[in-house]
Amino acid sequence: MSSIKVAIADKQALTKVGLKSFINERKDLQLLNEINSLDDLRNTLKSEQPQVLLVDYNLRDFVSISDLREVKILSPNTKILIISSDNDKSNIFDVIKIGISGYVTKECSQQEIVGAIYATAKGEKFFCNKVLDLILEKHLNKDPEDECLPTELSVREVEIVQLTVSGMNARQIADKLYLSHHTVYTHRKNVMKKLALGSVTELTLYAVKTGIISA
Questions:
Q1: What are the residue boundaries of the structural domains of the chain, listed by start?
Q2: Per-residue pLDDT reduced to its tens digit, 169-194
Q3: What order of strands is seen across the sheet that includes strand 4-9?
Q4: Short-list 145, 160, 140, CA closest to 212
Q5: Cβ(128)–Cβ(107) under 8 Å?
Q6: Fold of 4-140
Q7: pLDDT digit string (tens) for 32-51?
Q8: Do the domains spanning 4-140 and 155-210 agree at the CATH topology level?
Q9: 169-178 long-range CB contacts below 8 Å, 24 or more apart?
Q10: pTM (2 decimals)?
């Protein structure tokens, strides 16, 4: 089995030492590069194309939302896993909406961080318990008047929701349902608009809450 290629973009020396230790302890993880600047980030994405990018997200210092969007353009197959000490709710929700693969805090255990690397490398979404609590809190605190009867989805839309939250991408869903990937993209876009959702994480929570999938 080939190893999972990981790059670290974090300016804090202590954090990098810890992450390097976690990665080097495992034979199926390979550390490609330690990124210290935006130029390093761009060069690594172009030359190495890591499977997982562990990145410290901090609006005021290192990597911004626009930089994360650039990551997705320069290396579309690279999964972005945020590891941050930024616990500001609005910042967390903003970065989740652009389609990152996971978010863990620097207070998370080694086991949780390593688990996040494996999960995101497989194309799964991973959010640590603290971040999940914030997401659930946001949904549970919605105004009851906004929580009318569940929006009706078609049978095909429900199928696509189920497969999306299971971790499948549009092309995989298209192959499974014998549709064009453009049709799948259109269905997903319509579902997100119909439900007024901004990310796959929010879609997953909706699917659990309404019984489309089981928790």
A1: 4-140, 155-210
A2: 888 999 999 888 888 988 899 899 88
A3: 29-35, 4-9, 52-55, 79-84, 102-105, 126-127
A4: 160
A5: no
A6: Rossmann fold (3.40.50)
A7: 999 988 899 999 999 989 99
A8: no
A9: 169/123
A10: 0.67
